[in-house]
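Sequence in, structure out. Go.
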Amino acid sequence: MQLGMSESARFSTAEEARFRIAYPNSRPRKSRIIALDAASAEALRDLSGRTWNDAHFLRYVEPKTVSDTLHMLPVDAVLEDMDGKRANLVDEISDADVIVMVTTAGVVAEPAEVIGNACFVRHKLATGLVLSSPDVPCEVLARTLATMRPYAGMLVISNGGEYVSEMLSALRV
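Output:
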């Protein structure tokens, strides 16, 4: 070992490179990115045209209840893709690896409860992404965060449109 060489630098040498795995993950990730309101759906529409690995960009439409007599227990929801094709929340998340809920600051994110609970029951981790801007008052942002927090394992605030793309790339969407 050379003096003054950090462990990180040492592991990036050609000598250590022989221990690296030379092939990508054996199984690509299946991602579901769900907009909870109209403004976040518009932001996702712009992103959906890019190249992603098995990502479905969806929009929350309405909850589905267990039965007509039990309205207070929504356990599924109607989603819609960017082309208007409808799907069930449960079908979409059943084999997904990454679920991201996207909402706009100032919007009460009630759909997060339905999606978050459906993910929890299926042992899926839901990530929350709140689209904000510097001109959004702190109280407004705090209200949205409080609505999302119980249903997202990770909650992130985005202050710019380019951050959403970077966040999805970091999650290997």
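Check: The longest strand covers residues 55-67. Strands lie at 31-35, 55-67, 70-81, 86-88, 98-104, 126-131, 154-158.
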